[in-house]
Every structure is written in C-alpha cells, then in structure tokens.
Amino acid sequence: MCDILHVEWTIVPKTPPQAILRCSSCGDTRPFRSSGRTRLNANGKQLDAWLIYKCIDCDGSWNRPIFERQSVRSLDPVLVEALQASAPGYVAGLEFDQEGLKASAGRIEESEEFELHRRTICASGNRARIVITLALPYPASLRLDRLLASELQLSRSRLQVLFEAGDIRVEPARKDALKRSIRDGTVITLGLRDEAERLATGRAAMGG
Questions:
Q1: Over the stretch 172-199, which tens digit does the pLDDT of each residue have?
Q2: Where would I find the H helices in the chain?
Q3: I want to staple 31 with a disulfide (CB 3.0 to 4.6 A). Which of 18, 128, 140, 195 is the partner?
Q4: pLDDT tens digits for range 17-49
Q5: Distance separating alpha carbons of residues 90 and 97, to the nearest angstrom
Q6: Angle of helix 144-152 relative to helix 195-206, nearest 10 degrees?
Q7: Cβ atoms of residues 178 and 144 within 8 Å
Q8: Helices (H) then strands (E): counts for the chain
Q9: How far is it, in rounded angstroms, from Cα 116 to Cα 134?
C-alpha cells in the first residue's frame, strides 16, 4: 500500500544552449543558435559532418563539427540517414549537448527557462513523505534549490534549513546537493514535520 506522495518531474529546457563566437559578418562577438540543419560532405570514401549555427543578428554561419574524416564503412547507415535528413530527434540531441558544444565553441550561453511536466506515481491520503524524482531528457543548467523554490513555493533559505535538519534528503547524497545543477535520476525526499507545510508542499509538487 502506498503511504507516500511520489511524483516525477520531467524538466525540458525551452531552448538549446548557444555558442558565443566572433562573427565575421558582424565583426563582433555574438551568440550563434542552431539552425536545426546538418551538413554532410563526402571526401572520397570519407565523410565530414557539421551542425550549422547562425548568428542571431545576421546570416553569418558557423559549422560545428560532428565528426571529421570518418570512413563511410565505419558509420552506421541509420546515422548517415539522420544526418542527410537533419532528423529532428538526432539534431536535438546534438543541440542540447552542452559539453560537446563547449568543446567546439569554447564559450556558450545557456537558457534557464524550462518546461516542467508532472506525473503522479503514487499518492496517499496522509502524505507522510513527499518523494520527487527528476527526469531530464537533456542537460539543464538549473540549480536544485532554485527549482524547488519556484515549484514548491518554499524559500531557498527555508529549503536550506530543512536540508540541514535532515527533513530534505537528496540522492545522490552530497553536502552541497541543493546548490548543484539538477541531474537526471535525482530523488528528493521531503519528510516535513509541520502538517500544514507538508500538505501545501504536496499540492505544489503535483501542480495544484
């Protein structure tokens, strides 16, 4: 029998990170956003692939390398097809790959705007404990305390007090868990002692 409230929050960034580059057309440093288009170029029996980015102020472009000088035979035909078609699912995976973009561009700009979708896994009447599991299809640069404060209607200082008292537990466990960026699979357990606060927090967790 379920004796807790367990909800899953799926967090999706609204926009992919942008590359910060010097634009040869503008003559200044500008953000470049993904065009959503990939380019595949054959050089004999080898292939090069890029994701094309565009300056937000002009039509200047930057080709972000996906791979270079790869043998045609070594590549999965499904991958080649996805590159030829600029398949949205494949492109989205590249666009939200922060580390990959940073490795190519050096400097990036990340959005903190996100969409949050809630799913109730288990709900009891007394809600002795509230468990929130985070699901992130793509990396998101958002601190856990900021997420919880905005969605649970608790101040960040109150969250810190509860965390230090052991009324909030975070897995994987870290002393600075609230101050770290959210990660896929993170589990937050709230054992709030005050009934009114627990009920209000439970309603907020479900989006009520």
A1: 999 999 999 999 999 999 998 888 898 8
A2: 77-85, 88-95, 98-105, 144-152, 156-164, 195-206
A3: 18
A4: 999 999 988 888 999 999 999 999 988 889 999
A5: 11
A6: 100
A7: yes
A8: 6, 10
A9: 10
